[in-house]
From TrEMBL:
Keyword NAD: no
UniProt lineage: Bacteria, Pseudomonadati, Pseudomonadota, Betaproteobacteria, Burkholderiales
Family according to the record: Belongs to the acyl-CoA dehydrogenase family.
Flavoprotein among keywords: yes
Coiled-coil stretches: none
Domain of life: Bacteria
Record-annotated Acyl-CoA dehydrogenase/oxidase N-terminal domain positions: 1-75
Organism of origin: Comamonas testosteroni (Pseudomonas testosteroni)
Cofactor: FAD
Name recorded for this polypeptide: Acyl-CoA dehydrogenase
Amino acid sequence: MIAESAAVFLQEKSTSAQVRKVSEAEGGMDRALWQKAMELGWSGVALPEAAGGMGLGLRELVLLQERMGYHLACIPFFDAVVALTPLWRALSKTEKGLPVVERLAQSGQVCVLGMTVRGELPKAATVKVEGDALILNGQWSQVGSGTHADVFLLPATLPCGSLGLLEVSARADGLKVNALQTVDATRSSANVSAINVKLSGDAVLIFGDALKQLWAETRNFAAIGLAAEQVGVAERALDLAVEYTKERQQFGKAVGSFQGVKHRAAQMLVKVETARSAVYAAAFIADNQDESSDLSYFAAQARTDATEAALFSTRESIQLHGGVGFTWEFDPHLYFRRAQASSQRMGTVEQWREQIAARLLDEPEEQVAEAA
């Protein structure tokens, strides 16, 4: 029901014409669509019931993310909802953190994490104490959806030497947000810098080992969520190719009736369904893992399979559209751009494979078997 309702809603509100309008004239964010998505309760799907959410999990977010990718929805759902879910869940368990979640998570504000492109924890920023205030200085590069953020959650080294996550208003004095030109115009990115930004002590949301553990969980969680979006991108690229090859005539027949074209479409379908299976499995593991489970292996498989499916399918879609495949008037290039841009976020395929290979080679065989 979640997937079906999202498909119907986005089919109407995130049309090709609307996506092009927003990406060309509105900086890549459809504010009206974002507000409507909030009214539909999408931001609270995976939030605990104690924080006013539905208490569901990553499986339900994955279904929404697929539709987001399929329709190239110009809203920061991945950065402001999916990637933040582990943080909101962790804060909801504490007396101090619960009001923060209630204030930010479903307020309609765009809150984004100051993470690296690979999803790692930045460590260059610093905080010092002046009287009763905290003074923040530092830089965070290529922050996803940073151009449209209302609130930043920025990691920095605290005076005690440990890393902390700080809530910083996008309108704070001394905070600068420089928009970046992106390959995918349906998404925004920005370099964020802080010069003597004054904050209160309450700005620190979580710190120390708890933050490091949370960040590792967030990277895996977000990687699976992004993989789901890539499945949607790949599926739409396939559908566009099939629709076009059914219409295009050559030698008095539809191009789609030729065996060579059928084989290429079949390869795309196999990629899409393989990636979808990996993503669904990873989401299921994420929702049912215990403390001994290691989500990184499943996140890596979902991330690599989905990235390869999106890249392969969008390229093939352009080829199967023939001479018009790369033109601005046709849609395949929009999905190709999203696939290319997303392939660099949360770590590339090569980086995920290197990470897993290192663990398989370095860790004792028994430990790897238990984690799997």
